[in-house]
Predict the 3D structure of the following.
Amino acid sequence: MRILEHRRHSIRTKPSPHLNQDGVSLARRVGETMGNFALVVTSTLPRAYETAIAMGYAVHEQREELAHMPEAVDRELKHPMMFADYMAVVRRRGAAARYAAEQAALLRELVERVREDEAVLVISHGAIVELSAVGALPEADLSDWNGEVGHCEGVRLYYEQGKFVRGEILRVR
């Protein structure tokens, strides 16, 4: 089985694109609890890349697809949202559904690049993490995945026989 962790970046002070000191400290603390990753991919925005570095991981590549959601998708979302809310929006088959499917395809592409029993770390942004998880697990009951993902939180997805078979929420305590 292959594993993909998709996490939100750490803390920044808007409008700066960079992590602040609290963000670096949080990413370091979370990184100490994480395992090894054969592939680390971030969005092209500095806060995602800096999160991976602060967690202690070298970044293998950055992907623009992980950096921004189309405006049409954002218009369909009403924050704050639970995972079940994201699922309901995706099931309406609009822009969010197409985007969730595209994100799931990207996650499949990444996880298929590693061997069995290896893992991938992806770091991107709020709502992108949730929509990619919903796209990867379209039939799952995510009702107990309460709340949106916070800084350095995310999901762990398990992949076998060409598909994501289950997942779990990753919270920071």
In short: The longest strand covers residues 163-170.
